[in-house]
């Protein structure tokens, strides 16, 4: 007798389709999924699940169940800068708008309010795990605990001072203290977040590499975001940034490289040989006109490619459904091949590949027995989704972020019939409007 029928379960969900992602994205039609103690304990045909005792039973007959989406790169608090500096290239955007605004406004209250706004938007649109790189990560951790979302916190490292600290020594001390404090957290991991090759000097990069190896921690870095970044590095040091980081020991199987446009074949071979993860942010890359990431070439070279939105100040949303669609469409344009980046691969990038990039694939990223119950339900019954030949196609190529009805993280329901259970949307909107008025000088 299977284990699930011997003891009652906490939650039993019947769904029209279950898309497990692993071992494949092939939909299981009219199946059920059972959750016990925060874990998936069974997926089975609906007819075999009717006798299972459960504290809560949901019948989602028009819905697809899939793993929660994993947003592997962003700056959550920057949601308060959404729409503040549009239609500018990266360097103008950062140097003339964002960095001055951060210098003026970013403190713990800004980070708390901005993060609540971002997390509410992410939960509402199907994200159950995100990676953040921003100031005051201990404040972000407090909001994460309140919301019940899963996250990686990449604490910021630059050569220069910022609102969070005076320079690298203080960033390392505070970041490692946060890591010690969160060592036993079931939802949060801490990683190093050296900002970019052009803001972190060689000796600091080497310290990151050494400390991360000693503590077995991940590293996330913006890398080869634009051709200008590569050209500037060649002009000043005659080395491409990827080559420089390889020589300084920063690249390895726990290194998450964000953006990766402006790559030549040697760059791709280097990233593959070190087992680095690529984090593709198609919408931010398009909006800042940063360039195209050669996703298909990286995938063919064996590089794990995950997806991220980047911050809402350069996207301008945190919607992983639209990011999947953009990745799939752009993948075809960049490779000149309509069969490139098919729907199942875009969904895998947004789920299992994200979990692999963050070192969480033993816990989440697919609906497999024994994994933690990070699950979303999406209603496919509306007009713009008809008719449904293949639910995976609908999930990637039609916009479904507003149809996410339920979301569970570690078995806890954080979205119930479209309503957030842990955060107060109205209060979050009120505080965002107060920040807008303050920043606008009203
Ligand atoms: C280390 S804290 C994060 C830092 O990064 C800035 N930022 C946001 N988006 C980007 C991007 O696309 N490229 C480079 N830097 C970016 C953010 O404003 C913070 O200062
Ligand atoms: Zn970024």
Automatic annotation (TrEMBL):
Catalytic reactions of this protein: S-methyl-5'-thioadenosine + H2O + H(+) = S-methyl-5'-thioinosine + NH4(+); S-adenosyl-L-homocysteine + H2O + H(+) = S-inosyl-L-homocysteine + NH4(+)
Entry function: Catalyzes the deamination of 5-methylthioadenosine and S-adenosyl-L-homocysteine into 5-methylthioinosine and S-inosyl-L-homocysteine, respectively. Is also able to deaminate adenosine.
Natural source organism: Zhongshania aliphaticivorans
Domain Amidohydrolase-related, first and last residues per copy: 65-413
The record's free-text note on cofactor binding: Binds 1 zinc ion per subunit.
EC annotation from Swiss-Prot or TrEMBL: 3.5.4.28, 3.5.4.31
Key words, A-Z: Hydrolase, Metal-binding, Zinc
Sequence similarity: Belongs to the metallo-dependent hydrolases superfamily. ATZ/TRZ family.
InterPro entries for this protein: Amidohydro-rel, Deaminase_MtaD/DadD, Metal-dep_hydrolase_composite, Metal_Hydrolase, MTA/SAH_deaminase
Residue numbers binding Zn(2+): 73, 75, 222, 310
Cofactors named for this entry: Zn(2+)
Record: residues binding substrate: 102, 195, 225, 310
Protein name as catalogued: 5-methylthioadenosine/S-adenosylhomocysteine deaminase
Entry GO MF terms: 5'-methylthioadenosine deaminase activity; metal ion binding; S-adenosylhomocysteine deaminase activity
Lineage top rank: taxon: Bacteria
UniProt xrefs under Pfam families: Amidohydro_1
